[in-house]
Write a structure and sequence with these properties.
Elements: H1 4-11, H2 17-20, E1 24-26, E2 35-37, H3 54-134, H4 139-143, H5 146-162, H6 173-177, E3 181-182, H7 213-231, H8 237-256, H9 263-282, H10 288-293, H11 303-313, E4 316-317, H12 325-346
Antiparallel strand pairs: 1-2, 3-4
């Protein structure tokens, strides 16, 4: 086995005599540049691993520091990019919100334009109806109550705007007794004409034949009972349903006789039954009692008084029956006399167009 001096031969290092005797020595370079054991001088690590020295440590530390710096820079860059993305999302949200606001604003403008157009159309239609009602209207305008209500509403507008009234135009009580009115919300759309005399019916001649005796007597009996119950506020469902059932039987019986009746008689009988059905359904209205108490009736000695009572009660003229036609024509003429005189008195203060007034031009329809 080689001694420590052998290491000097291989490694060119110095020899420590004390360590050498135990086979240890330090060498430089070459294969034996490390710590040697025995005669071999050990395995050298000095020549091939310079990084294990102080300089290598500092280089490693610098590398770690540089890597940490790069990592922190990447983190910071990621944060910046995230903030930019958040700003872009915020801008996109603002843009979407603004688009939505613009859309809602546009819809609001369109809705306003559409509403204004509809109001203009309604105003023109009301004016056209008023012109028709004042200028020799068709018969059905008068008999349906449309002409009377249209002129009445216009008179009310003029009187409220000018605080003026028309002349004293008298109305016969017989005419008033045949004017049918309602509160504008009855289920049958009209008041009572056929049954207003405590349910006593004035049957047309075509329904007074022996063939109709049984059903006619049954209707008379149940109608009188129903009216009495309405006047005392205790109409029950059984009586009401029985009345409707009897009227249905009457309609079927009349239909079965169509071949045996003259066309004119059939038409009059059919109108009577239809009107009777309408009035029977009004009996179920909560305000039905007021028709018999006189609260829902045309009242007054003059046209002005009749109109004032109609205004106060919120009443409207309803459809005329066959035996009311003469009274409706008479009251229409009296109403026109009052209306014409009022227009002449107020002149331009009326703010209402006369019969020959041209219709207002409509704006463009926003929703064609």
């Amino acid at each position: 086995m080689l001694t420590g001096s052998a290491s000097a031969q291989w490694g060119g290092g110095f020899q420590n005599s004390w360590l050498g005797q135990y086979g240890y020595g330090y060498g430089r370079g070459g294969i034996g540049g490390g710590i040697g054991m025995g005669g071999m001088g050990g395995y050298g690590m000095g020549g091939f691993m310079p990084g294990m020295g102080p300089g290598g440590y500092m280089m490693g530390l610098a590398s770690v520091t540089n890597a940490n710096g790069q990592y922190q820079m990447q983190i910071q860059q990621a944060r910046v990019e995230q903030q930019q993305a958040e700003r872009e999302r915020y801008k996109s949200r603002l843009a979407w919100d603004q688009t939505r606001i613009d859309e809602l604003k546009l819809r609001g403008e369109e809705a306003t334009a559409s509403r204004q157009y509809r109001e203009t159309v309604r105003d023109q239609q009301r004016q056209e109806t008023l012109n028709w009602s004042r200028d020799n209207p068709p018969t059905h305008y008068i008999m349906s109550g449309l002409a009377l209500n249209t002129i009445m509403d216009e008179i009310r507008k003029i009187q409220l705007a000018t605080n003026m009234r028309g002349p004293q135009v008298t109305v016969d009580q017989d005419v008033l007794d045949h004017l049918n009115v309602n509160n504008g919300g009855t289920s049958g759309g009209g008041g009572f004409s056929l049954i207003k005399n405590d349910g006593k019916l004035n049957w047309p001649i075509s329904l007074r034949t022996s063939e109709f005796n049984p059903i006619r007597q049954e209707v008379d009996q149940i109608m009188g009972q129903a009216v009495r119950m309405v006047k005392s506020d205790n109409l029950d469902g059984d009586t009401y349903n029985k009345l409707l059932a009897e009227l249905e039987k009457l309609q079927k019986a009349m239909d079965a006789m169509v071949g045996d009746l003259r066309p004119g008689d059939f038409i009059l009988a059919n109108r009577f039954i239809n009107s009777l059905n309408k009035e029977a359904r009004v009996l179920s209205d909560p305000d039905a009692k007021k028709y018999f108490s006189g609260e829902f009736r045309a009242q007054g000695g003059t046209v002005g008084e009749v109109l004032e009572n109609m205004f106060k009660g919120g009443l409207k003229f309803s459809e005329a029956n066959d035996n009311d036609r003469t009274a409706y024509n008479s009251f229409y003429n009296s109403l026109m006399q009052y209306d014409t005189a009022l227009l002449q008195a107020v002149g331009p203060l009326a703010g209402a167009a006369g019969p020959s007034a041209p219709a207002n031009k409509l704006p463009n329809n926003p929703n064609p």
